[in-house]
Amino acid sequence: MTEVAERLSDKETFLDALSKRVEDHAPGWLRQLRDSGARRVETLSFPTHKDEEWRFTDVKPIVRAAFEPSLRPPREAPDPALAAPHRFNLPGWTELVFIDGFFVPGASQLPDADGLRVTSLAETVRTGGALPRTHLDALAGSSGNIFNAMNSACLVDGAVVHAPRGYAGAAPVHLLYITTDRQENGAAHPRNLIVLDETAELTLIESYAGLTDAPYFNNAVTEIVLGDAAVLKRYKVLHEGPRGYHLSSAHVEQHANSVFRSFSAFLGGKIARNELKTRLAGEGADVSLAGLYLAEGDQVIDNATGIEHASPHCTSRIRYKGVLGDTSHAVFSGAVHVHRDAQKTDSNQLNSNLLLSDAAAIDTRPILQIFADDVKCTHGATVGQPPREQIFYFQSRGISEAMARAILTCGFAGEVVDDISVEPLRTRLHDYIYNRYSPQK
Amino acid sequence: MTQAKEPSATDETMTPETTDNAAESHEYTGTRIERSNREIAELANRTYQHGWVTDIEMETVPHGLNEDVIRLISAKKGEPAWLLEWRLKAFRHWQAMTEPRWANVRYPEIDYQAQRYYAAPKRTSKELNSLDEVDRELLNTFEKLGIPLEEQKRLSGVAVDAVFDSVSVATTHQDILARKGIIFCSFSEAVKNHPDLVRHYLGSVVPYTDNFFAALNSAVFSDGSFCYIPKGVRCPMDLSTYFRINAADTGQFERTLIVAEAGAFVNYLEGCTAPMRDENQLHAAVVELVALDNATINYSTVQNWFSGDEQGRGGIFNFVTKRGKCLGRNSRISWTQVETGSAITWKYPSCILQGDNSVGEFYSVALSTNYQQADTGTKMIHLGKNTSSTVISKTISAAHGNNSYRGMIKVMPRAENARNYTQCDSLLIGNQCGAHTFPLIEVRNKTARVEHEASTSKISEDQLFYCKQRGIGPEDAISMVINGFCKEVFDHLPMEFAVEATKLLGVSLEGSVG
Q1: How many alpha carbons fall within 13 Å on the CB side of residue A241?
Q2: Same structural domain for residues A441 and A404?
Q3: What confidence tens digit (pLDDT) does each residue in B210-267 have?
Q4: Tens of pLDDT, residues B343-363
Q5: Of A259, A282, A305, which residue constitutes the final position of a domain?
Q6: Between chains, do A373 and B429 touch, taking CB under 8 Å as contact?
Q7: Which end of chain A has the smaller Cβ count within 10 Å, N or C?
C-alpha cells in the first residue's frame, strides 16, 4: 500500500491511486458504483470559501495534506484491545468495531437478537446481500459533494444495518470507528447503510475515536432509509484525535410517519464537519436533530444540517448548542426548505452558543426557505456568555466565579445531553462535560 | 398646525397599487357584498395609480454606457474635474466587475448598453431663480403626485426635494432651513456650492468599489439630495426627497448624502413612483449617511415604484445600496422602510457602528404580490464598544410573490458588549408565494449578546374564527391581523406615512386571500 503515497490534493493522482487498486473481487455493480464515484470526483471541485455551504470552513489543510486512501485491510490484524476503552461491552448490545477503516471481527460483538442484521459492508458484498445494491448511493450519489464522491470511489468497508419489519429490540447497535497510528497520514472512507423497514425500531450509536496525535482523515458517509412508521434513534459521538480531520455526511430519507431522533456530540478533531441532510418524503414524518459541540484550541467544528419538507404534516426540530473556548471556530447552518405542497409543516430550530474566550468565533446561519403557506416555522439563534447576574448570584452564596462559570457551562451543555435515552451514553457524556469544564481540572 | 388639513407632501406617494384579484377571492364573495359593494369594486379595479406619463420635452444622452457618456453627463452638469475623475475611476472599476447573482431573485439579463443614463426636462433658461420659471408641465406632474412645490402649498411642514428622472426640479423651504445653517439641496447644487463638503463625504460610506450597482451608480449618478445639518442643530422640519421616473428606457441613478454633525438631528423621508410600462426599468441608487457624535438620523422610505402587472410584465428593477456610518460616539442611525413596489428589490440598508455606544436600527415591511421578488434585509457591523442594534423585519408574500430576508450581524473583536436583537417574521397569503430567511451571525467577541428570532406562518384559522365570531368579515379580519403584524414597524414612521402605509397594505392585499 505504501506505493500509493499520493496526494489527495491532486485529484488526478487520487484517481490514479484508485485505478492501481488491487482487484478485490468486487461484483460488477460495486465496480460501477466506484467508477461513477470516481467520475464525479473528476468533474467536481474541492469547495472554497466561495461555495455558500462551505463559506466558513476552510478544507485546504485536508486537501493539501498527503492523506493516503486505505483501500485494503492491513496484513497484520490490529490488536482488539485498542477498542476496549471506547466500547460499552454490555450484554445484548451489538458492537461493530472498525480499526483504521476496516472491520475487526475479533473486537466486535455480533447481534444475538432475532431478525436484526448487522454486518460489515465488505462481508455483505461478499455474501451477495441485496441491500447495498439497492440502496448504496441512492441518496448520497446526487449530493454534489466531492467528499461523498471520493467515498463512493473508494467504497471498501463500513456497516450495513437492517432492521426488518416490526423489529423492536431494545438493545442499541454501536458502530465504533477507531483510528490508530499504524498508518501514517491515512484516510479512511467508511460507508454505512442503515435501513429500517416498516414499523421497525432501533437505537444506533456511531462513534469515532482517534488514538493518535498524528494527522489523519476520516471521510464517512452514512445513508439511512426509514420505512413507514419506523423509529430510529441515532447518536453520533465524535472524539477524533487532536490532529484528526473528520468530514462526514449523513443522508436520511424518511417515509410516512417515520420518526428520526438524532443527537450528535462533537468533542474532538482539528477540523470536523458533519453534514446531516434529512428528506421528509412521506406524510407525517417527524425529525429532530439535536447536537452539542465543545471546541477549544484551534478546532473548527462545522454543523451543516438540512431538512427538506417534501410532504405535508411533517414536524421538524433542530436544536444545537455550542461551547467555544480559545481560538476555536464553530459554524452552524440550519437549512429548512418547505416545498410548495408541504402544508401543515411544523418546523422549529434553535442554535445557542456560549463563548468562553475573546478569540473564539462563531458563524451561525439558520435559513428558512418556505414555499407553502399553511406552515408554522420558527428559528432562533443566540450567542453570548454566562450572564453576569447569574455569576453574581453564585458569588453572593460563596461560590467562586470560576466554579460558577463551570456550573453554568455544564448546565448549558448538559441540557441537550439530558434527552439521551441510552443511559450508559448519557452518563459518559455528562461525566465528560463535567471533567472538561470543572475548575479543579 | 394646519398640516392636518392639507394633503401631506407624502400622502400620495404611498397610494396603493392594487391587484385585480377579485376572481381569486370568490370564496368570500358573500361577505364582501355585505361590505360596501361600491368601495370594494373601486379598490379591486384600481390599478397602479401613478402609472401615467408626463409628456414633456426631454434632453437625453444617447443609449449606452462608455467614457464619453460619462464625460457628457459630467459636462452637462458642469462638474469639477475631480468629480469626473471619480466617475471615470468608478466606471473602470465597474467594467471589471460581474453582476452579483447570489440574491434570491430571478430576472432576465440586463443589457447595460440598451439603457439611457441621463434624461432631464429641457430648460428654457440656464438658471432658475424661482419656481415660476419651472416648466408648468413639471409642476403639474408633482401636483398630480401630491407633492406641493408651489409657495401657497408649502404649509405641510415638510421640505421637499423633487427629482424628475435625472435632475432635481425644485427644493422647497430652502430659506427657512438656511437660517439654521442647514443645507438641503440637490446633489448638483451641492457640488457647485459646497464642493468641499461633498468631496469629503462622497464615497466615504459606500466607496465606488463596494458592489456592482454602487460602482455603476458612482459612474453615472445624475442627481439626488444633499443634506448637511450643522453642529447641535435639530432640523425644524422633516426633509423629504421625492423620486419620479418618467422617461422610457432610462435608468434612474440618484445619490443621496446626509451628514449630521455632532449633536444634530434629522428626520428624512423618501418616496418614489414611476409610470407603467411593459419594459423593465433600472433604478440603482446609493444613499450614504454619516452621523457624528451624539447625532441622530432617521431615514424613512416608502418605495412604491411600479411593480409590474399581474402577469409580472414590466416594473422597476430596484438595486439600491444604502448604508449609514455611526462615526461618532452615541450616534444613532435608524432605517425604516416600507417596500411595496418594484418588480425586483435588492436592498440592504446597513449600519456601520463605529463610534462607541452608537445605535443602529432597521425596521422594515416588505410586501411582494403578483410576481414581485424582494430580497432585502440589513447588515449591522459592530466595531465600537457598547454598540447596539435592533432589526425588525416583517415580510408579507401574496400571489406569486417571493420575499427574502437576508441579514448579517457582525461583531468585530473590539466591539465589547455589543448587543443585537433581530426579529424577522413572514406572513404567507396564498399557496403560490414564498418566504425565505437567510440570516448570518458572525461573532468575534465573547461579550457580545446576539439574539435572532424568526417565524413564518399564515394567518391562522383561529384568528379568523375569533373575528368572524364577533361579526368581523374575513377581509377586515385579515387587514386587522396584517396591521397588527406590521405595527412595530409603522410605529417608527412619521404619522402621515404610517396611516398611508396601513391603507396601502390593506389595498394591495385586497382579494389575495381565499
Answers
A1: 18
A2: yes
A3: 889 999 989 888 888 888 999 999 988 888 887 777 766 677 888 899 999 999 999 8
A4: 888 889 999 999 999 999 999
A5: A282
A6: yes
A7: C
Q: Which amino acid is at B13?
A: T
**Cα A269 from Cα A302, distance rounded (Å):** 11
Confirm if B279 and B221 have CB atoms less than 8 A apart.
no
Q: Are residues A173 and A259 in the same domain?
A: yes
For residue B450, which residues of chain A lie inside 8 Å, CB to CB?
Answer: 381-384
Cβ of A52 and B102 within 8 Å? Answer: yes
Would you tell me how many other CB atoms lie within 10 Å of the CB of residue B463?
15
User: How many folded domains does chain A comprise?
Assistant: 3
Number of A:B CB contacts under 8 A? Answer: 111
Please judge whether A383 and B449 are an interchain contact, meaning their C-beta atoms are less than 8 angstroms apart: yes
Domain that holds residue A165: 1-282
pTM of the model: 0.80
Do A168 and A206 touch, CB atoms closer than 8 A? no
What is the distance in angstroms between the Cα of B197 and the nearest Cα belonging to chain A?
Answer: 38
Interhelix angle A11-19/A146-154, rounded to 10 degrees, is 20
A100, A75 Cβ separation under 8 angstroms: no
Picking from A350, A355, A368, A238, the residue whose alpha carbon sits closest to that of residue A288 is A350
Q: Is residue A151 part of a domain?
A: yes
Q: Are residues A362 and A406 in the same domain?
A: no
Q: Mutate which of A370, A391, A405 to disrupt the B interface (most B C-beta within 10 Å)?
A: A370
Q: Measure the CA–CA gap between B105 and B103, rounded to whole angstroms.
A: 6
Residue A288 lies in a domain: no
Q: Are residues A174 and A319 in the same domain?
A: no
Q: Which residue of A has its CA nearest to B104?
A: A369
b/e code B214-225 from CB counts within 10 Å (16+ = b): bbbbbbbbbbbb
- CA gap A300, A247 in Å, rounded: 11
Q: Which cell goes with B242?
A: 421625492
* Residue type, position B89, single letter: K
Secondary structure of residue A208 in the 3-state scheme: strand
Query: Of B446, B447, B453, which is closest to A380 when you measure between CB atoms?
Result: B453
Helix (H, G, I), strand (E, B) or coil at A145: coil
Coil/strand/helix, residue B298: strand
A210 touches A85 (CB < 8 A)? no
Packed helices B212-220 and B81-95: angle between N→C axes, nearest 10 degrees: 150
DSSP three-state, residue B335: strand
| Tens of each residue's pLDDT in chain A, 441 residues | 333 333 444 576 677 777 777 667 788 888 888 889 888 888 888 888 888 888 888 888 888 776 778 887 777 878 888 888 889 988 888 999 999 888 988 888 887 767 888 999 988 888 888 888 888 888 888 888 889 998 998 888 999 999 999 998 888 999 999 998 877 778 889 999 999 999 999 999 999 999 888 889 999 999 999 999 999 999 999 999 888 999 999 999 999 999 999 999 999 889 999 999 999 999 999 999 999 999 989 999 999 999 999 999 999 999 999 999 889 999 999 999 999 888 889 999 899 999 988 888 999 988 888 888 788 888 888 888 888 899 999 999 999 999 999 999 999 999 999 999 999 999 999 999 999 888 764
Q: B497 φ, ψ to 5°?
A: -60, -45
- Yes or no, beta carbons of A370 and B435 under 8 Å apart: yes
| Cα three-residue angle B88-B208-B230, rounded to 5 degrees | 110
